[in-house]
């Protein structure tokens, strides 16, 4: 019996005697099956062939990745808070060296995941640090390894630590969420809810990124309204160094209006 991990998306599945028939995350139209065919690995195998990498992404924000790349190249962010560290999103691998480093930095009091493409090995992480994983209840169908450590929150907001609030946005997935941190003018951790663009001045909102499936004007306005009550300067996006350092709230407003104008034919 083992917990198999899809090599294409990095999602870990419940314990089985043999590999699952297919990956539900990858067969969804927001992702894709490996063109070479479905492939699986395990946490134990990854520990022998891969390692965790750590890079500072901002003050009090430590990025955690995997080298060589596995899954979609996810990186997590460990956010230092007033009363402990919160891991935002997750990666498929947790090696012993990284676990020792995190413990030296105070451990992890909670894991919060934006959407299913970052579920990865979240249960292994939760067991290692004895902490809960917060997933919006609307994303329950995409939790492929059920576990008591997973806490399904409902409603529009949930506090995971003092000064850190999960905000339900929807859009990319029904339960897509962002993490708001009330620190130094405010910062927003967005996963794929708001995709920080290469120009670092605008963001995108999509139903499916790899296959370029847009959302409606109604949906993008709904996603933007979810974060409107919060004041924030910085936006930490989905990949390494995808950070808007200042003016984040105005960037979202401007980006939404540009998107709506494009959908409604301004550029025809």
Give structural notes.
With 268 residues, the protein is of the alpha+beta class. It has a single domain (4-263), classed as Metallo-beta-lactamase, Chain A, CATH 3.60.15.10. The chain contains six helices and 19 strands. The strands form five sheets. The chain has a seven-stranded mixed β-sheet with strand order 3-4-5-6-7-8-9. Helix 5 runs antiparallel to helix 6. It is globular and about 55 Å long. The termini are far apart. The model has no long low-confidence stretch (mean pLDDT 96).
Give helix and strand order, one letter per element, not per position: EHEHEEEEHEHEEEEEEEEEEHEEH
Number of domains: 1
Q: Tell me what portion of residues adopts beta-strand conformation.
A: 25-35%
Envelope shape: globular
Helix count, DSSP H or I runs of 4 or more residues: 6
Q: Which superfamily, in CATH terms, is the homologous superfamily?
A: Ribonuclease Z/Hydroxyacylglutathione hydrolase-like
Q: Which structural class matches the secondary elements?
A: alpha+beta
Main CATH class:
Alpha Beta
Spatial strand order of the main sheet: 3-4-5-6-7-8-9
CATH topology: Metallo-beta-lactamase, Chain A
Q: Gyration radius, to the nearest Å? A: 18 Å
Number of beta-strand segments:
19
Largest sheet report: 7 strands, mixed
N-C termini distance: 56 Å
What's the pLDDT, averaged over the residues?
96
Which bin fits the share of residues in helices?
Answer: 10-25%
Q: If classified by CATH, what would the architecture be?
A: 4-Layer Sandwich
Low-confidence segments, given as residue ranges, are none
